[in-house]
């Protein structure tokens, strides 16, 4: 997972955003193929990544969102023999961003963990 760590620790926040959103959209596309028998459209996926990053940055130029209710964490284990990956990102009031990434097996053992705040 060193390759992923290298991308997520880039200095340019736009690179990190594009990388994270690309992984998320690829995961969504994979799920559509597996569970809905949909055709994967790479061009549409790439276009949606660019649009999501652009919309996010435009809407967060001066607005800082805060949760009105606390989020109660709840982890559901993956099927035996598979790995569950969770990724979360956030924007903070002082203008910084952060992310966290964790990969766990069916018993909850942490296989990879990384986080950063910029």
Across the major sheet, the strand order is 1-2-3
Principal-axis shape equals globular
Number of helices: 3
Q: How helical, in percent, are the residues? A: 40-55%
Q: In total, how many beta strands?
A: 3
Task: Pick out the low-confidence regions.
Answer: 63-68
The ordered string of helix (H) and strand (E) elements is: HHHEEE
Give the mean pLDDT.
Answer: 82
Strand-residue fraction? 15-25%
| Rg from Cα | 16 Å
Total of domains: 1
N→C terminal distance: 21 Å
Structural class: alpha+beta
Report the biggest beta sheet as strand number plus sense, adding barrel if it closes: 3 strands, antiparallel
Please provide a written account of the structure.
The chain is an alpha+beta fold. Helix 2 packs across helix 3 (42-59). The two termini are 21 Å apart. The radius of gyration is 16 Å and the shape is globular. It has one domain (2-117). The protein has helices spanning 2-8, 13-36, 42-59; strands spanning 84-91, 97-104, 110-117.
Brief descriptors of the model:
118 residues, alpha+beta, three-stranded antiparallel beta sheet, 42% helix
Describe the SSE topology.
Blueprint: H1 2-8, H2 13-36, H3 42-59, E1 84-91, E2 97-104, E3 110-117
Antiparallel strand pairs: 1-2, 2-3
């Amino acid at each position: 997972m060193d390759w992923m760590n290298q991308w997520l620790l880039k200095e340019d926040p736009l690179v990190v955003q594009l990388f994270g959103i690309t992984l998320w959209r690829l995961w969504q596309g994979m799920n559509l193929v597996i569970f809905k028998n949909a055709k994967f459209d790479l061009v549409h996926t790439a276009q949606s990544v660019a649009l999501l990053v652009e919309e996010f940055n435009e809407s967060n130029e001066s607005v800082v969102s805060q949760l009105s209710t606390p989020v109660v964490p709840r982890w559901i284990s993956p099927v035996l023999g598979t790995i569950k990956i969770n990724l979360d990102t956030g924007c903070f009031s002082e203008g910084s961003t952060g992310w966290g990434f964790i990969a766990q097996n069916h018993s909850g053992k942490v296989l990879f963990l990384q986080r950063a705040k910029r």
